């Protein structure tokens, strides 16, 4: 091989201690794949053969605190060696329909071909022998890696874990790999048999995040589309048509994939790259609900935001949900403002609407991706949007101004209907945006609410 695995001095000392105790160390899985791709891997999976689990813990204990992550899996971490995971070879027998329904059989002397056979794809089934500094490739993973192919390591065992369908999609997104035909058929069979329905929301969310944060998100999602492995709110985009004079790219799905790939190129400029990518994926989910036979989709942003709140259950973080909801609801506003040359007051009201929910900058990036994802946008259209936003920011700033009338002011002025404070403060803020000063605003509020106080 051209280069050796880059291991820390502490790791090498530990591996030598394992060898002296009669064990044999292999690096396995994704770290070997990334090594061959000349990519840095933050996680190093170490498989120790010919030692019992108790013996492994005993060897590791002088080097730091041994943290048992799964006794039945014979998996441990070492407090002093971040990113390394130690495990014994094992085989897994499926015992039920759920993702976690496995019987684990740990065997320190398991033959290498059996130890590797439990892994998902051939590119993840290689080992690096620390002692000989050679890659052991029983299932032709290097050839598939060279050709950019995802192939099931063992067809009989692949379908036992439905998460592999989503893992395959994430590898396609992150590395640009293609799925082998037979493996794709296996994935489709898993979907048809309801395998994805056995996965927890957390696991699905994690793999979707990997797809979204990859270089080519559309590759992973188009694969899931092909095998009908998408949730309904994405599946419906495939059959929702658009007006060809506005969207020559075709269906809402085609448009969404273009937007998502464009978003992947600029996500690092946004405040929350992952949340931004979720917004790009979901920005048009309201279109199937409102699209007319002629291809009009009036109100799709508002409908999409409501659908997101009611039906998209993958997002569990409240802050993330608020951000994505805001991005979906307002993704059309900036282009509309630019096209209609909206006045300052409208822009200020918009800044107030998105305040503390999603930054103006992020919405602008989504608007640009949305425009460019139509396959017909000229540079003049983008320039017009940019120039309008620059002008408005120079006049209004990019954040909503602080309110000059507060609840404390209403109390001090003697407004008694506390239950109406929210409406009164909203009205006060709108007067502020119109340029009125605090004294005038208070006087107007008293007149309009019939307050005879103060």
From TrEMBL:
Signal peptide: none
Record-linked Gene3D superfamilies: Beta Polymerase, domain 2, cca-adding enzyme, domain 2
Keyword Nucleotidyltransferase tagged: yes
CDD domains noted in UniProt: HDc (cd00077), NT_ClassII-CCAase (cd05398)
The organism's place on the tree of life at top rank: Bacteria
InterPro entries: HD/PDEase_dom, HD_domain, NT_sf, PolA_pol_head_dom, PolyA_RNA-bd, tRNA_CCA-adding_enzyme
Database matches in Pfam families: HD (PF01966), PolyA_pol (PF01743), PolyA_pol_RNAbd (PF12627)
UniProt KW Nucleotidyltransferase keyword: yes
Keywords, sorted A to Z: ATP-binding, Magnesium, Metal-binding, Nucleotide-binding, Nucleotidyltransferase, RNA repair, RNA-binding, Transferase, tRNA processing
Annotated ranges, domain HD/PDEase: 248-369
Needed cofactors: Mg(2+)
Entry similarity comment: Belongs to the tRNA nucleotidyltransferase/poly(A) polymerase family.
Cross-referenced PANTHER family: MULTIFUNCTIONAL CCA PROTEIN
Protein name per UniProt: HD domain-containing protein
